[in-house]
Amino acid sequence: MESIAAWQVAFLCGVLTWIAASSFFNFTQKLRSLSQPWVTHHVNSGTDIILQIQKFRNGFLDALFSGMSCVVSVPFYTAFLPLLFWSGHGKLARQMTLLMAFCDYLGNCVKDVVSAPRPCCPPVRRITATKDEEDNALEYGLPSSHTLNTVCLSGFLLYYVLDYTSNKDPSVAVAGIFIVCLVVVLIGLGRSHLPLKSVFLLDSCFLLNLLKFVYIIGRIYLGMHSVIDVLGGLAMGLMILTFWLTVHTYIDDFIVSGQNVSSFWATFSFLLLFAYPTPEFPTPSFEFHTAFNGVALGIVTGVQQTYNQFHHEDVARIFTPGLPIPAFLGRMLVGIPTILIVKFCSKALAKWFLPLVSNALGLPIRSTSYIPALSGKKSDEKRQPGFAQKLLIFSNEDSFDVDTGIRFLQYSGLAWSVVDLVPILFTHLNL
């Protein structure tokens, strides 16, 4: 039996202490009272800038930018994240996934702490052509989490490309930094919806950033963010990227060769469901955090268990003799349907299992959407739990929202299948 490291106990106790202290001292309300009026003032004062950009409106731009937002929707994540793992770039894939989850958590926490509005509509014209965009528009504005995510992922992608190609040419590094800076500048003109980029060559980095370059301009055109939101996302993104480049090696070493990895990360992920602020009014931000939190848990546990079989540094990579294009296409045809089936089955199993366990333990539960039979009172349905307010002992809530657990297990199962179940199928099919 593996011994429990002292740092793991201390870290988890620190998170638990923060949850209790934040609830007891009501940090969220105090921080909101200080920050919300200032941010709201700058959001309102930035309306003229948005209106100036929207003077260029026409039907073609409406269709173009609305269509581009679909490229980086939830279905995009579901399809593209696995491809990074199956292409042989496992280290990049798990680091980008964990970084995305980290950015999502911090960005959405700040959003719901500040609870600052998006640009007022009208006079700003906001186009939400898809269900994903409608959900995004329901979130608060500061910071632009899409700016934050793009800064972090573009920066880390550049770092990985230079490291993977062992390129020491300063001109290449400068060119890469220039590309990332162009992305950041255009993020300042509008909100981008996080695309996780594949990377095999610097050319692919350039083309994908160029695509995002055009896409980002459309976010302010669609009326999704104000200037202060973007600047906030930029500042947070640079700080998070700096931090991640400092610690990512230690995190990766712990995942692939540490002790108590699965049990530690499962406990940590569970606590993160409670270490989340309650917004002024309910938003989908906590749901996004729950999903990414589940994805991170599934990736970590799956990689830790199968690293030596499927995810070590000597695995075949795409565009090499060990993994030609036809074999990679075969992986896509087998893998994507498999993970979608696992996602469906995980959700169905969680919808059956969690209410059963809750009833056995005597825990009061409700469901806002997944289980109609457990729909509670209107007042309960409209209240989004967060921070320790999801723990009945620390809150006025009289029941748990079982949808949180269902969503968490659903995405954990999906991510686990990407790095564990599907690679086993590849082995049996000689892919």
Automatic annotation (TrEMBL):
User: Might you report a single GO cellular component term?
Assistant: endoplasmic reticulum membrane
Q: Which Gene3D superfamilies match?
A: Phosphatidic acid phosphatase type 2/haloperoxidase
Q: Could you tell me which Pfam families the record lists for this protein? A: PAP2
Q: Which UniProt keywords apply?
A: Endoplasmic reticulum, Hydrolase, Membrane, Transmembrane, Transmembrane helix
Membrane topology is: Multi-pass membrane protein
- Main localization is endoplasmic reticulum
**In the record, what terms sit under GO molecular function?**
sphingosine-1-phosphate phosphatase activity
Q: Where are the transmembrane segments?
A: 6-27, 63-86, 171-189, 201-221, 227-247, 254-276, 323-342
Q: Which InterPro entries match?
A: PAP2/HPO, PAP2/HPO_sf
Top-level division of the source organism's lineage = Eukaryota
Where does this polypeptide localize? Endoplasmic reticulum membrane
Q: Which residues form the Phosphatidic acid phosphatase type 2/haloperoxidase domain?
A: 96-250
Coiled-coil stretches, from where to where?
Answer: none
Q: Does the keyword Hydrolase apply?
A: yes
Q: Which SUPFAM superfamilies match?
A: Acid phosphatase/Vanadium-dependent haloperoxidase
UniProt lists the family membership as follows: Belongs to the type 2 lipid phosphate phosphatase family.
This protein is called Phosphatidic acid phosphatase type 2/haloperoxidase
